[in-house]
Amino acid sequence: MRISVTTRNALNSLVTLGEAETVNALLEEFITQKLESLRPDQQRTYDIINGVATKRDNV
After folding, report:
1. How far is residue 9's CA from residue 36's CA, in Å, rounded to a whole number?
2. Which residue of 28, 38, 46, 56 lies most exposed, with the fewest beta carbons within 10 A?
């Protein structure tokens, strides 16, 4: 997966400002915030999709 140069620059700028230790930590924070805002049905669907992707990656 690739991200745009604009997105990369924005993430790196936020890390440079001290908003997170790393880009990965910043993304994890964003993902956590988004997951917490999902409706229960969306959460169940996310869990299924993420579970399939995780199993695929572990093969």
Report:
1. 26
2. 56
Q: pLDDT per residue over 16-46, tens digit each?
A: 999 999 999 999 999 999 999 999 999 999 9
Query: Which secondary structure element, helix H or strand E, spans residue 3, and what is its range?
Result: none
What is the sign of the dihedral through the CA atoms of 29, 26, 42 and 55?
negative
At 20, which amino acid appears? A
Predicted TM-score (pTM) of the model is: 0.81
* 46 within 8 A of 35, measured Cβ to Cβ: yes
Instruction: Give the burial class of 5: count Cβ atoms within 10 A of its Cβ; 0-12 exposed, 13-18 middle, 19 or more buried.
Output: exposed
